[in-house]
Structures are given as C-alpha cells and as structure tokens.
Write the structure tokens for this entry.
Amino acid sequence: MASIELALGPCFFNWSADHFADFYARIADEAPVERVYLGEVICGKRMPFTDRIWPKLIERLQRGGKTVVLSTLAMPATVRERKTIAEWAGLDMPIEINDMSALEARASRPFVAGPFLNVYNEATLNFLAARGATDWCPPVEAPLTTVAAAAAACPEVTVEMFAFGRLPLALSSRCYHARVHGLSKDSCQFVCEKDADGLAVKTLADQEFLAVNGIQTLSHACQTVLLDPGRLAAHGIGRLRLSPHMLDMVAVAGLYRTLLDGVIAPGEAETRLLQMALPGAPCNAYLTGEPGWKRLSV
C-alpha cells in the first residue's frame, strides 16, 4: 500500500505578511508535509497585499523540499481578479483551480480540482480529469461513500480529503466582517485581520454555530478526520489536507504523520489532538452523511 501523503491547504485568513513569512518558514523546515498550497482563495481585496509575498515563500518552501501549488481565488468578482487567475493558470507551476473560469486558461494542462468546485459525482470528476485534473479535494460535505465511488471511477486522479480545520462551507458577495463592524464591503478597512481563525458566530440560544472570515462562512467546529491509513486507501484517498490555523500546525502535521505511518492508532491520535488548542469543538459527521457539526465514531 502506498503511503498516504499530507498537504497543507491554502490559508483562508487575513494574516499579516510577517506572520505568513514566519509561519511558512517553519512549515518549510519542520512540518512533515509533502505539499503546500499558497494563494489568496477568499477575498480579492487582499490580493494586492499578499500576491507580492508569494514568490519568496515559494522559494523558501521549495528549498525545504515541499511541492508548492498555487491556489486560485474561489469567487472572482472583478476584471483584475479574473486576469490574475488567468495569469496564474498560464504559469508552469502546479495550480489548484477553485473557480471554473480558470479551466480555459489552463488549457488542459495538469491541475488540482479544489474543494470550492461543485464536484459531487464521478461524471463531473471524469469531465475534469479529461481536461487535466490530476488531483481532487472533494467538497467538505461529501460523505466517504461518495468520495470512494468517484475515486473508483477515476483511479488516475489522486483524492485529497479535507482532514483538519474549520470547514469551508460557503462564500457570499457580501462581507459579514465589514457589516458586523458597521462598515461596507468597499470600505472594509480589512477588519477581518482582527480574527486570525475567523469570527465566532453564536445562535440566539448562545450556541456556538459558525465562524465568518470576510465573505466566507466556515463551521465553528473543527474537522478531525482520523482514520487509519488502510481505511483511507480502501476509500481511494491518497492524501490528507490540513487547513492552516493559529495553533501549532507543525505539531498537528506531526501527529497526522505518525497516524498515517501506523505509529499510533486513531484513538490515540484523537486523544492527543483534543489536547491541542483547536479553533472549535471537533467534528467529523459529514463523513457519514450526518450533519457536519457532529462528532461521531466513524
């Protein structure tokens, strides 16, 4: 059985350039992940600040032996944003497509089909594979049975499951962060930078419910997929994706690596993970088709 790889997904949050530099320098040197995704996925207004830092981070990560994949914006809204996606799609680098508008510019060269694409069945995955998709990160609400069926129908595509972090649920044209601070989207003052793991949202009954990050809605709970490598392989999964948060992601990656190498069992991995400062309560129920905020014995 081939070893299950680990990837660090794109950061969804509005971190400072200095924090990005420190974070990815440590990932390059210490995190046992094979690939790292870089790029602004959520808000095009952040791109003028982040696009200038990616070249140095790419060089730093590649020097650390990581495969770097550029992640495109998931909901481009302006001409500038669409041009940037087209430019990135034309680069001779691995790329993750999160909006279908990038397909034409990629011109059938290899790409990763990101979790923001609506790929819920093998027919759609086959369509993308015929146009260059070599890897697929399924939407987070896809249950294991759906993922396994698509993987079996498209064995040439590596399946990368979202295994850790607040679940990316939706994007909107409106900016929740600006609104809650009494600002408009056009004059948001980038207030989303105040909440490095997202802004917690509670129901009227004071129950922790969701988190918002600019125009993005995430789960409040934290996905924790902790299956043994044999079971992952049996469902056609070849790689796990960890989503960056403010806790020690090197420690999170190290824990997952020991699980995937068979050094510790899923139960021990769960015990250790729950001792870390997770951004929310653990959840995993989308794997079984149940409401995703739940935590079940899978």
